[in-house]
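Table S2 (continued). Query chain:
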Amino acid sequence: MTLRHHFREKLDEIQSDVIRMGGDANEMVRQAVEATLNGDLELANHVISSDDRVDEYERNAVNKTVLAVMQEQPVAADLRFLISTLGVVGEIEKVGDHAVKLARRASKLSGQFPAEMRVALLELGDAARRSFNSSIRLYSEYSVELQQEIVSGDKKIDTAYLHARNRVFDLIQQSPEATPHLVRTIEAFHALEHVADHAVAIAVRLGMLYGVEIRQT
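Corresponding output:
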């Protein structure tokens, strides 16, 4: 086996680890939404405990990436990949953190999530997860078209979040006594909006490394 082939195997291993990390974080978001909608405290606790695994993925990926840079002399394309990996794993870790925040809101809501907001939370969760999943695909196989799709799609997600937040404000005015759990409802939507923000951050990071700048419109 040549040294180049051995190094390529190291890069493939790092990439596989990051993709698995992204898949785990995305699943945490899905489970956190489900826990919030169904008042499932056991599932919420499962999401919270799952964050340790995502953190471990991050530590391993960072260590392997730094070692690859220090021990090898990567060519420009490989160095670009390794640099992008450091940024991407940081964004994925933050997505896991937001899933945990959402799960904690689920625990505090204790099954009191407002019925009239259920569809909005489910739809925003699906949109945020699709965007995040696309950003992980972008990391494994960069394309300008996919980057543009992620960045431009964020405006729709932001609009959906603002509509949901304003609707909850209306509910607070109608039922001031329900303010505590309605504020937690807003926080649940906000956590999902942040998931999509990290997808955009990944897309922008990768675009900079490939010399492509795409601005949100």
